[in-house]
Each structure stands twice: as C-alpha cells, then as structure tokens.
C-alpha cells in the first residue's frame, strides 16, 4: 500500500465521520441540558439511572456506563447528590458497595429537560435518518459497544 492509499483508507474516513458527528451532535444538544443547569455528564448519569431497574445502579456500573473512573463517578454522584437529584445508598448485602439512586427531584429535573432534549435529538440525529437507517445504526453501535466496552451493558441484580 503506497502512502496515498494509507491516508485515503476508508477506515479513517469512517472514524473521522464518527468523531465529527459526535462533536456536532454535542454542540447542537448542549443548550438543552445547560438550560436546566446540567452538564452533559450530569444528564447522561441521570438518564442511565432513570432507565435502570428501580432507578438505581451500582456505583461501579455507573462509572463504566459513563466512562468515568471510580473517583470521577464519586465526584459526579456527590455533585448530583448535593443538588438533590441522586442519593447514594449503601448495599445492605455488602456495606462496602454503594448504589446511586435517582431521587424524585432527579425525575422532575429529567421531566423538565427531556422534551427539549428529545426534540433536539429528533432534529439533529434520529429525524435525519429513515427508520431502517436508524435501526441499522443502533444495531451497529450496539455491536461496537459490546465489543469495545462490554462492561457498559446494563447489569440487573
């Protein structure tokens, strides 16, 4: 493979498009969570909790699903807890383990931000694709996620 072919590799194109699409989406979606006083990380954590059984996750699972370190997720949960949106509950079976639990105030904050957030997702992401394209993209992203970050798959216990 000569130098030009190397730089024109379609794998680089696909990766570059993924980076560009991600950055563009964040720029378009950011105003929806900022209006509610949240960061993108805050919203991601609150959504993950809201979509988990009993609206709770082990701190380690929340760290994995948000791509945070143990100390990073602790700081995040501390901040969300101070805002009354999440509480940390010790696991009665293992007092060394804690779970992050979405509070009623956290649910209300999500109910406040989600209509505008979903409208923006529709406008800048899902609405740009046909249903078949969206299904294929979702399936493809799940394959890549499962291979590269299998610990992010939701655990139920």
From TrEMBL:
InterPro entries: HTH_MarR-typ, MarR/SlyA-like, WH-like_DNA-bd_sf, WH_DNA-bd_sf
HTH marR-type domain segment(s): 11-146
Pfam families per the UniProt record, alphabetical: MarR_2
UniProt-recorded name of the protein: MarR family winged helix-turn-helix transcriptional regulator
Organism: Nocardia xishanensis
